[in-house]
Amino acid sequence: MPAELQFEKPLLELRDKIEELKRFTEEKGIDFSEEVAKLEQKAAELERTIYGGLTPWQRIQIARHPERPTTLDYIKSLCTDFIELHGDRTFGDDPAIVGGIAKFEDMPITVIGHQKGGGNTKENIYRNFGMAHPEGYRKALRLMKQAEKFRRPVLCFIDTAGAYAGMTAEERGIGEAIARNLLEMAGLKTPIVSIVTGEGGSGGALGLGVADRVYMLQNAYYSVISPESAAALLWKDATQAERAANTMRILAPDLYEFGLIDGIIEEPLGGVQKAPEQVIRNMRETLHSAFRELLQLSDEELLEQRYQKFKAMGQFTEV
């Protein structure tokens, strides 16, 4: 049974009724085509009403939907000849971040991303729900430096609530690992493109987010802190997450307006999980255009553009 969001419940109930009528027609041989047509029209109108006026909190719920594609799903759909590489050559391998080499439209690339799981509890736990330890970021950096050596562009998929905040991560230096990635990515002499596909949580997201082009899916969010944590800090009550989300301006349109991202990749009504092939098509076009532009630049031009891009963030004008 598909995962259900609370605000989608009336629509899903109506679609269940439509399916029930269709089954009854097949089993009993009674023609309900006119009733089915009316209900389908009503469902289409209800779908436009629900998804056309989503609040920020509802979009965040869609960004966290358990049926959204994972990094490995995107790699499988966008790339060919993917070879996954493991380990940071220091401590071990972190399943919360996957990466390797592949071909995008016959062009060799290095692809890296957070991997939340595969839709079941066992896989989610194995991947630590996409919350990486230090060795995950060190593995990512190892692959990026390898990409620089062999002149391969880097593609990163960001989807994490944040880096793992447990004792084991602190013991192995999670802060240093993320900071090292920020430093090294800023000076990496090969094009980097990052896409926030779901959650873009704090430093855990930034560890793969220093890129020449940063894009977001329409219902994704990118934030210094989760709405629950923000509510706990501001009002000492994590249950006020919806209130926080509605004021934080952490969605794709907000960040594009602020100049913090370079573009928005459209999703179908209800989210990418409703029609992933449509999003893959949009994503492919975006990546094709970005890589074509970036590969024409010299190393010096690439680094200068990246420097100016991040230097411009946070500038303001006094009134």
TrEMBL record:
Pathway annotation: Lipid metabolism; malonyl-CoA biosynthesis; malonyl-CoA from acetyl-CoA: step 1/1
The entry's keywords: ATP-binding, Cytoplasm, Fatty acid biosynthesis, Fatty acid metabolism, Lipid biosynthesis, Lipid metabolism, Nucleotide-binding, Transferase
One GO cellular component, as annotated: acetyl-CoA carboxylase complex
Domain of life, source organism: Bacteria
GO molecular function list: acetyl-CoA carboxylase activity; ATP binding; carboxyl- or carbamoyltransferase activity
Entry-linked SUPFAM superfamilies: ClpP/crotonase
CoA carboxyltransferase C-terminal domain location: 38-293
Coiled coil: none
Keyword Cytoplasm: yes
Reaction equations catalysed: N(6)-carboxybiotinyl-L-lysyl-[protein] + acetyl-CoA = N(6)-biotinyl-L-lysyl-[protein] + malonyl-CoA
EC number(s) from the headed UniProt entry: 2.1.3.15
Biological processes, Gene Ontology terms: fatty acid biosynthetic process; malonyl-CoA biosynthetic process
NCBIfam families: accA, AccA_sub, PRK05724.1
Function description: Component of the acetyl coenzyme A carboxylase (ACC) complex. First, biotin carboxylase catalyzes the carboxylation of biotin on its carrier protein (BCCP) and then the CO(2) group is transferred by the carboxyltransferase to acetyl-CoA to form malonyl-CoA.
HAMAP family cross-referenced by the UniProt entry: AcetylCoA_CT_alpha
Subunit structure: Acetyl-CoA carboxylase is a heterohexamer composed of biotin carboxyl carrier protein (AccB), biotin carboxylase (AccC) and two subunits each of ACCase subunit alpha (AccA) and ACCase subunit beta (AccD).
Family in the record: Belongs to the AccA family.
Protein name, entry field: Acetyl-coenzyme A carboxylase carboxyl transferase subunit alpha
Taxon lineage: Bacteria, Bacillati, Bacillota, Bacilli, Bacillales
